[in-house]
Amino acid sequence: MSCKISLCVVAGLLASTSAIAQSCPTVASPNGVDHKGLEQLELADFVAQTMSELTFLDNPATEALVGRGALPPVAERLPKEPLVIVPYEACGTYGGEMRYLARALESNTSEGLSWRQVQLVRLDDDLQTIKPDVAKSWEWNDDFTEVTFVLREGHKWSDGAPFTAEDVAFWLNDLIMNQVLYPSTRAPWNVGSRAEVIDATTVKFIFDKPQPALLNHLTTQGHFFAAFAPKHALAPFHGDYAEDADAKAQAAGYDTWADWFRVRWGHWMDKTTHSELGLEVPTLESHIMVKAPDETYRDFVPNPYYHRVDTSGQQLPYVNEHKERFIDPSLYPIEILNGNVDQKSPGAIDVFPALKEGESESNYRVILPGGNKGPFMVFNQTHPEERTRMLYSDVRFRKAMSVAIDRNEINETLFLGLGEIGGGLPYQTPVSKPGDATHFAQFDPEMANALLDELGMVKGADGIRTHPDGKPWSIIWEYSTQFSGTPEFPVLVGEMWRSVGVDVQLREIDSVTLGDKNSANTIDIGMIYDQAIYPVVAAGPDSLVPPFHINSPLSGLPWVQWKDTNGAEGIEPPMWVKELFTLGEEILTFEPGSDAWNARLDAITEIHRQQVPVIGVFGALPRVSIINKDLNNVPDITIIGNTSYTGYLAPWGVDQWYYPAN
């Protein structure tokens, strides 16, 4: 059947009022439906295969939950071609709530965000294949400088307004590329990017340089940075569209429209729902916020215009409410044991015995998916204090600090012996070599002492070394337990470093403050690092090139400033960093996995072998997670823990999880 005929059939089905018994093909029982292993297919394909109509049904509680009065019929709320999700086990029933815990607004919330987040494209649960989502299809030009996305006709924002190509172009041209809003354009859009509207459902991204890894970025590092924004809701507050934008901002207590706009909307999607202003910004996500959040909670209800349905025609999601509470992470295990949490990766692996012991008597089951790496430590080689910068910039210091760590002791003492010892090199890539996984990960205090002696750091009577200038000096390690894995980790590592004479002052801070300090280049040790395993590197070299992270700079911002201003600002980097900059730009122009791409990755990896800019502890570490026993359609989850290359739970379709009917 041709595409045109299929579209005609689909149009007829949407107009049909006949009630046809609808089966429910699933992954477990596909009933002849070939979903090509992607757990989804387009409506036209589904209709062609089943030769039957699909009558659309919705959650009868949606109208009351949303609280906006009467809603149009579900067939009018859906796109003309909704995305058909093939459930893992069964077409679910509506109702119930999923409860989540986080540290605070914008802190430890990414896992909960993954329950509802959508993007132009999505990652399959094989964690490799890219498949349609908000966009129905896409096509590249020959040199990967242009990619054209086709959107779903009739798709609507959560407030019922049309979602069109204008919203995609507005996002890129007027938000991401706006120098007033964001003086420093984030990768991969910082290569001269623009969007061109072809028609209401067709939009083209155009780049000055090839961007063959863009889709990899959108499904991994860029998953939580949805490539669209509601122009109709945001343009009235944007200085390029509204003459009174500054006046509105000043009336609200802000200096400029950009200051207020960044509070109203953020490219990280959870930023948009961090205040009551989020109520004014519609979304395409599965659930929407209908009450202003406070410091203790945030609630979400189904998006009545969500674009996905199951194979029986039911609009997703199944679960009525997402309830997110903000509490101290030390209380996570207690809340889980008391049955007050439905899905959570509580972080510290040392909670596993207690959670496992309580599993039989509680409402949850414990899983140990892989995916965690690290913890990682990146010494800030562009530290604002010259004395500290001098030490952190010396590879002998970084090597000494790495081999002074007894990773086996850390593993047995803090991680139940479940970790796989590892360093900070790129991991499981096409160019990985024997020994890379444990590069400078051996415990060798003699080597550490010899390197520190060579640096001229002299031990005093108390066993603590001076700075090479002869004066006292300490590492100021500000850390967040969100990235240290356990609060005892910095304490134990600090003791190991003191045992070779390097003093360490520990200060626990929250993850938001840590990110702010990273961005301000005032941190001694950065820890918000995503190890460069293949899915991460395929999306871009950000974790391998200063500032070593796409979102939260770890080290090297003054180097980046020097590069971006042709030496007018910042600090001139050493030659090896200049080489990383060049290789990082080159690798983006080749398809991931190609010979040319592999050659650049090999050269980048060799620099990391020599310079050890990242210190790791584990190459693999299970992530303790719990899931309510009553939730259905929950597949075998292999990875939770690294937002950049899985989007947490997004590949496993939380919108199809459901509770059995009472």
| Main pleated-sheet profile | 4 strands, mixed
Mean residue pLDDT = 91
Determine Rg (CA atoms, Å): 26 Å
The fold-level CATH name of the domain at 378-619 is: Dipeptide-binding Protein, domain 3
Write down how many β-strands occur, each being a DSSP E stretch of 2 or more residues: 22
CATH homologous superfamily designation of the domain at 378-619: Dipeptide-binding Protein, Domain 3
Count every helix, treating DSSP H or I runs of 4 or more residues as helices.
25
Assign a percent range to the helix content.
25-40%
Q: From the coordinates shown, what is the CATH architecture of the domain at 378-619?
A: Roll
**Which strand order does the major sheet show?**
3-13-11-10
- The shape is globular
Q: What structural class do you assign from the helix and strand content?
A: alpha+beta
What's the N-to-C terminus distance? 42 Å
Share of residues in strands = 5-15%
**Would you identify the regions where 5 or more consecutive residues have pLDDT less than 50?**
1-21
CATH C-level class of the domain at 378-619:
Alpha Beta
